[in-house]
Specification:
By secondary structure, the chain is an alpha+beta fold. It is 26% helix and 39% strand. Strands 1, 2, 3, 4, 5, 6, 7, 8, 9 and 10 form a 10-stranded mixed beta sheet that branches. A hairpin with an 8-residue loop joins β3 and β4.
Length: 168
């Protein structure tokens, strides 16, 4: 893979593009009770203009409890069909911004929050990336397999895709 580090607007566009394409990522929070992260799949609500990623979570969840104690988080997005992957480390914050809750609310949320948009357990989770790294082939699995075989024969890995740091 060719290294292609991106900065500022380019990095933000790449991050947003991957998160929007994959949607559901694993959000990992940390607790002092364990050496291992607590990971849960979550669907993003938005990647905002600053590159912050927003989710809705419950004040009763393990993720909420962990972030209340330690704001450090890691996010992982993977689309094996297109060989697109993204890892993010950052800081999380929690809020009850009713305007955002109203904007993000949809029919599916009713299954999680029985009291509707005003449920006091609804929390917004805002993740600000501090480090991000992506792997992206821009091809489907069949094309990727062909490129990998070609690289194995020729030794030229430039064709397989790109990877790099995203400095948002």
């Amino acid at each position: 893979m060719a290294e292609n580090n991106l900065n500022n607007k380019e990095a933000l566009e790449k991050l947003k593009g991957i998160v929007d394409q994959i949607d559901v990522g694993t959000v990992c929070s940390f607790t002092s009770d364990s050496d291992y992260p607590h990971g849960v799949p979550m669907s993003r609500q938005e990647v905002d203009a600053n590159g912050d990623i927003w989710y809705i979570c419950s004040a009763e969840s393990e993720t909420f409890k962990n972030i209340s104690q330690d704001p450090k988080v890691s996010l992982f997005y993977a689309d094996p069909k297109t060989y697109t992957f993204l890892s993010i480390n950052g800081k999380a914050s929690l809020s009850r911004d009713q305007e955002r809750i109203d904007r993000y609310w949809n029919k599916m949320m009713e299954g999680w929050f029985k009291k509707g948009k005003e449920d006091p357990n609804i929390q917004l989770l805002q993740i600000t990336p501090e480090e991000a790294h992506y792997w992206d082939s821009n091809s489907n699995m069949v094309v990727n397999l062909f490129k990998m075989l070609k690289a194995a024969v020729t030794g030229n890995t430039q064709d397989i895709g790109n990877e790099g740091d995203l400095n948002v």
